[in-house]
Structure formats: C-alpha cells, structure tokens
Amino acid sequence: MWCKKSFIYKFKNFFNLTIQKKYSVIASVLENANIGENAEGWVKNLRVQKELIFADVNDGSCAQKLQIIIPKELKTDALTYGSSVHIRGKLSKSPRGQLELVAENVKVLGPCVVLDGYPFNPRTTHPPEYIRQYIHLRSRTNFLSSILRVRSSVTKHIHDFYSSKKYLNVHTPILTSNDCEGAGEVFKVQPDCEDTIKAMMQDGKDKDTVYFGSKTYLTVSGQLHLEAICRGMGNVYTLGPTFRAENARSRLHLSEFYMLEAELAFCYSLEQLQNHIEELLKYIFIETRHTNEADLSLIDKENSKPPAWLQKKFATLTYDEAQDILKKKKVVNTENGLNKEQELALVDYCNGAPVFIVRWPKDLKSFYMKECQDDNTKVEALDLLAPITGEIVGGSLREDDYDRLKSKLPSDKLNWYLELRKFGNIPTGGYGLGLERLLQTMCGITNIKDTLPFPRWPHNCSM
Amino acid sequence: MWCKKSFIYKFKNFFNLTIQKKYSVIASVLENANIGENAEGWVKNLRVQKELIFADVNDGSCAQKLQIIIPKELKTDALTYGSSVHIRGKLSKSPRGQLELVAENVKVLGPCVVLDGYPFNPRTTHPPEYIRQYIHLRSRTNFLSSILRVRSSVTKHIHDFYSSKKYLNVHTPILTSNDCEGAGEVFKVQPDCEDTIKAMMQDGKDKDTVYFGSKTYLTVSGQLHLEAICRGMGNVYTLGPTFRAENARSRLHLSEFYMLEAELAFCYSLEQLQNHIEELLKYIFIETRHTNEADLSLIDKENSKPPAWLQKKFATLTYDEAQDILKKKKVVNTENGLNKEQELALVDYCNGAPVFIVRWPKDLKSFYMKECQDDNTKVEALDLLAPITGEIVGGSLREDDYDRLKSKLPSDKLNWYLELRKFGNIPTGGYGLGLERLLQTMCGITNIKDTLPFPRWPHNCSM
C-alpha cells in the first residue's frame, strides 16, 4: 500500500524548501521578507544622490517596486533606466518601514540605451495609443503590465469560482465544421502547404474540404459543444479564444477575443441563471480588488474605490420595459434590438449599475432559445448590460423540447445537437461573457485593444 | 473609506448560504451529507427487487454514484437506464455506512429509449473505438467522463502550480503572422465571406492577406510571444490550443491539441529548467492522484497505484550518451534525431521512468536555442521522454546574445523577436508540454483521441 498522505506531505515540504531559495520574485519578498537576498528585474527609476543611488526595481510579479540602495562605487554606466539587473545584498527596513535591499553586488544583465531606439522614457506616462505601436515591448510599461496582471488574476478567479462549484472545465474546440448558421462572420481554415493539399486531394474535394473532409471554421462560440458535455456530465464551462471575421473597427471589437461560456445543468428558470451570473461577476470584481488593488489604481485613479453596485442586487427589465424607457428618454433606434447608445442609456437609467434585459422578441434571438411559456413571441433570453461596454453577457434557457427544436433547426449538420434532446435530456441554460469587455468595465479601459497582450483586428495581426 | 475585509466576509457568507441550497451536486453531497435532499442526474444502473428499486445516479460531478432507494409505487415506465431524473427524498446511511437517498418523489426529466438508437447499454464496457463513433454522446459513458474529469483537474493543478509561484498566465494569440519558419505544417486563415473580402480588397492584396494585411496562420507555439512578455514581466506561462496541418494519422497526433508553455525569467542553466519541469510534473501527478483517484482507477486498473518514479529523481542523459545506449541495444535509426521506438527504448532503459535527453546537436534544433559554451555544435536543449508517448516536453535555454541571434534569424519578419534582446535583455529558458500526451502517460490511454472531448485529425472535424 502506498501511503499517499505522508508522501504528499514529504514531497511538498521538500519543494517548499527549494521554492524558497529559487523563486524570490519581488511579490514574494514583499509578502515575506525572509525569503530573498537577491533581486532580479528591470530598473524603473534611478535617483542619484551624493553617496548613494536609489533604484526602483520591478520584476513584473506585482505592481510594487523594490527600492535598491546602491553605494556609488557599485554604479556602472550600463546601470540605467530600462536595464535588467541582478542584485545581491541585504534586505532591511527603511526609517519609514519600507522594505529595501542594500546592494553588495550589482550586475547589469542587459543594458538599455534609450537613444538607440527604446520607445519609452522614465517618469513619463505614455498614452495607450503610443504604447500600442510597440506591441512587442509594451509589457515593459507600467500601464500594460498592470492590465496583464489583472487579466491573469481575473482568469484565476474565474477558474476558482467554477472549481468551488465543481463545474467541469471543458476545452471546447477551436476548429469546427459548424458555420454558425451561415452568419457569414466566420474565418475558414485550410492547410497552407500545397504539397499536403495535393497529397490529400480526392475526387469531389476542393481546397476548403480536403484536409478535414468538411469545410472547417474557427469557432464563434463553444456553446453547442458545451451543451453536449453538459448533457452527460452536468455543469460545465469553458474559457478560451473565439473569432469574428467582421470588417468592423471600434473600441469594442476584436477579431480574436476570449469568451467565458458556461452551461448550467438542471436549470429550470431564467432567474436561476441570473442569480448565478450576478454571483460570478461580483465574485470576480471583489476578488480582483483584493489581489490587484495597486494595479487597478495604477490603470485608472477612478478605480481606487469599488463601484457602488457591488453591494446591490442587479436590476432586471423586460425588453418591452426597456423600450418604453428608451422612448421616454428619446434614445431611439430605427433597427431592431438595442444599439450601443441605447444599452448605455439603460445602464445610466439604472444609476450606472449592471442591468439584465430579459424576455426578448423571438426573431431577434437564436433558434436554440426556449420560448416563454406565456408568450410564444418571446424567448427566455437575457443580456446583461454594464458601464463602458454595454452588453457584457448574453444567455438563455435552451429549447429542451425535441419536436419544437427540430422545427427550428437551421441545418441538417446540427442533427447531432438535436439528438442530445432524444436520450436522457435535461433542462439547461447558459451564457457567454466577453473577457475583454469585462476587463474594460472593471478597469475603465476605453479601448479593448489594451485588454490583452496581442490584439488582432482588421488590417492588424502583428507578431 | 471602503472597509474591504468586512465586506468581502459578508459577501462570502451570503453566497455560501445560497451555494449550499442550490448546488448540491453529488460530489458535494458525498463530501458533506448535510447539504442536499435532492438529487439530479442520470440513471447508470437499475436493480429491481421485490418492494424496492435501487438506482445508481450520477451527475458527472464525480466518478461515484449515489444510490437511490425507490419504493416500487414510485416507479414509472420512463425510469430506465440512461434517463435523467430529479429525486426528492431523505439522505441516510446504509447498514454498510454508504450514503443513500430514500426517494419520496421521482420525476423523470428526459426518458431514454435504448431501442430508439441510443448507442450505449447498461453493465457493458464499450471499447474506446466504439465510443469514439458517438462523439456528441460519449460524455455519457463512464470511460470518457472520467477522462474529462481528470483533464479538468489536471488543468486546475497546472494553474495552481504556476499561481503559487506567481507566474503570469498569458493568453498568447491563436492567430499569428509568424509562419513558423516556413515549416509547412501550418493552417492558414481567411474570412469565409466573399462580400467581406470584396469590401476590404485593395491594390496588391490577395485573399490570403486582405483581412489582416498579412498572411495569417494558426499558431504552432506561443513561445516567441511568451518571450516578449517574459522580457518585461518575468516568469510567464500559457495553456491553450495549438495546431499542426500534418497529414499524419497516429495514436499520438492531433491537428488541434493543447500545449502548456512556460518561460522562466533569469534562467541561467539547463539544470534550473530541468528541476522546474520535474517539480511541475510530479506536482500534477500527485495532486491528480489525490483529486481523481476513482477516475484514474476507472480508466485503467493499472492506475490503482502511483508510478514508482514519482519518488525518484529523473535521470538525465546527453544526446550522445543516448545514442551509445541505443547502439548497444541495437535500436537504430537511419534518420537524424530520435524516433518513437528509440524514445521508448530509452525510457525502458531507465526502468520506465521519465528521462531528460540534453545537449542536442545544433542542426537538429531551432534557431533560438543557446549554444553550449564548451561545444558550439551542441545546444542547451532538452527533451523529456516518458512512458507510452515518448517525448512529452521539449525545451531549451534561449539564445540571449543579440549578434549571435541576428546571424541565425530565419526571417526579417522576426525582427521584433531580435529586438527583445536589444533593451534590458535577460537570460531565459522555457519549454512546451503536450497536455494530451501528459494525459496519455498519466492515465495509460493508448489513443490520444480519447484524451479530449472533440478530437480533430486529418479527415475528421465532426461537430
């Protein structure tokens, strides 16, 4: 018999020791001053005084910088703003109680000659549009590195939220033969190599179908796949990239973006879904305020206090109620549905708090949404509108009646989706949340291109 | 001032209450018998006795089933194997101490008529090749649902491992203008819609370049992008889909698969990288044995005890030593490098334990790998070989000398990658680990198509 517990204990103990020696990133040093005598990172600021030099060093592990005190005789020409350094020394507390490292040895690992084309300058707040021109270097700025830390934390909190509820993390596919009901905003995928295509070519196949045997697209949503797993394993979620081949440039659109999608098993009402979404959002906001307070303030001073709506219940309006409000406010729209201006007007109407819009006209929504029992012109759908971005979540109960779904199925290719209802079917509901828009709302980032490390949009796929 | 701690406390308290009421999945009920009086799930087995019916119900939250005791008068015709049910009743302990639910009300949510085309039968172990034909339904089998739970847990342990070390989770892009040095095994991406293409067409552009302004591919690795973030923010990792347009069908290859990649900042030696990889692998294996013991045993009885190598240090062989061993064993190869047979022979030589192969001939490896200081025909690269799959990890120290890298750069398109070395450069090393191969090794799954929910391979992209 293998004694699991004692082994795991021994194992963890062994590795904790080694971790303490090797991984003294600045975030860990600031949490526990006993674990490091070295510092590695980039010089963010340098103040030269008579006998001493004060260098603020950051290694990306947190927003905070570690102050290094360097005796003047250890200064070399290469020790400049932007250079990377390895410092050996002694940690101590400054008269003000701040942790600092008194250097005994300073090694410049990589110099940084600003005049040689480095685009950033010390003590300068470069505007986001300027920083965006230097995609490969922009993680070296305080602004973007704070955003990327927030993004990483939000991702962690999302996984923790679902894990605590025992949701299954499902890796839904990127490649799919589902063309999204012919909506026309998809990317298609082919092998690039002509030799591969030639070798695989058979009668009746063309370049579009030769590799997979069917035309293949980049996913626009993992929902249908999630529903398949949900109908065998219960509550599921997925967090990953999705794609839109729109020819639209805006501060809210990307060609590649992350979507969080979840499907709730045994979901009997839209209210059940709404409560879950509200809990999720509040959890992410509160946890991130806890883990990344300094980053949030650095991104936007407005973030220094949490939004008031975190302590209140989200409002709910029916689609018809929302239209009445917009008419009274004279924010009208010649097209169907809600446009961005109207969405933000509704958020404004709710004092800047997120608001659910429910019970949508059937013809504005997708085939898989469940009809309202008391009104078959409406579906059990919801949009959640939020400040800055408008729509941030879209969801619905799913049509669970086999015959009704069959009559609405847009393509034979989706027979597999229909068949999910044939055997041991369950009522489910689900939603999709745009990660980048969530970050915009949370951090007050006006341009979506600043919410992720490598944005892709029409005419731009650099790197 | 906002009183954060007390607010978070109140918030968590509030939600814990609601969680207890709503989320009584079977995994939670088995952990804490106080939290549920209802059960929802699928009937996995049904035994009819004189007065009582015993139904084993599973909801996908764990491998275990909850036994439901149903008085005969509550039985309906629809209550069969494969049907989904909602049970209200009272939890109690059986004479053997096992938790069971005595039903007071039984509702069949979705019937399952096996004769109407349901491919699975009760008390039958269907072979994986059979199950694979029913991709949309296969999460309803014990075999695949156990694998998907292990996959979800492994994913969680990976995130926890890096989070504990304060690594940044970076979402590297799927779309890239980097063609992977013209290796020819990439997929290219275009908008599917002819109208979009027409509207965006400009002089000198073709269909391949019109949307993004440059030819665009699906990523084969996030490494180069990770290196860009690593050189501003330190330790980073990414876990996500990668793609190969190979015309190869094997039990080890997929067209879309998940890769875990990490880049270690301030990485001075291959040994530092090896220790980190060994720690990662052992952590994942041990944690998963802890969280998914029942699933592992269900997938393969051989998994009932952990592999002996978990308690030993991984062996290391140089590439030259490995070749000598293979010559003595007469496992030879006319091509360069190691083939699968040789990889497995080396694992066998190490008593079935993972083994690092280091110091590879330069011409077998990529341009970005650092030359060995004492032998410029070799690079500081490693492969980790493991049972069942052979190569499971590939990694290296990265060339950090600007001029040497410049001389080896395969394309001007990678000038951004070169420029990372120009300003505040640091020594780094990194690796990629195939998630599906890890699952094969961990669980003893011979065909890689059974390690993920929706496998894609040449001639197959169903759903």
Automatic annotation (TrEMBL), chains A, B:
<dbReference type="InterPro" id="IPR002312">
    <property type="entry name" value="Asp/Asn-tRNA-synth_IIb"/>
</dbReference>
<dbReference type="InterPro" id="IPR012340">
    <property type="entry name" value="NA-bd_OB-fold"/>
</dbReference>
<keyword id="KW-0436">Ligase</keyword>
<keyword id="KW-0030">Aminoacyl-tRNA synthetase</keyword>
<keyword id="KW-0067">ATP-binding</keyword>
<feature type="domain" description="Aminoacyl-transfer RNA synthetases class-II family profile">
    <location>
        <begin position="148"/>
        <end position="453"/>
    </location>
</feature>
<dbReference type="InterPro" id="IPR006195">
    <property type="entry name" value="aa-tRNA-synth_II"/>
</dbReference>
<dbReference type="InterPro" id="IPR004364">
    <property type="entry name" value="Aa-tRNA-synt_II"/>
</dbReference>
<dbReference type="GO" id="GO:0016874">
    <property type="term" value="F:ligase activity"/>
</dbReference>
<comment type="similarity">
    <text>Belongs to the class-II aminoacyl-tRNA synthetase family.</text>
</comment>
<keyword id="KW-0648">Protein biosynthesis</keyword>
<dbReference type="Pfam" id="PF01336">
    <property type="entry name" value="tRNA_anti-codon"/>
</dbReference>
<dbReference type="Pfam" id="PF00152">
    <property type="entry name" value="tRNA-synt_2"/>
</dbReference>
<dbReference type="InterPro" id="IPR045864">
    <property type="entry name" value="aa-tRNA-synth_II/BPL/LPL"/>
</dbReference>
<dbReference type="InterPro" id="IPR004365">
    <property type="entry name" value="NA-bd_OB_tRNA"/>
</dbReference>
<protein>
    <recommendedName>
        <fullName>asparagine--tRNA ligase</fullName>
        <ecNumber>6.1.1.22</ecNumber>
    </recommendedName>
</protein>
<dbReference type="InterPro" id="IPR004522">
    <property type="entry name" value="Asn-tRNA-ligase"/>
</dbReference>
<keyword id="KW-0547">Nucleotide-binding</keyword>
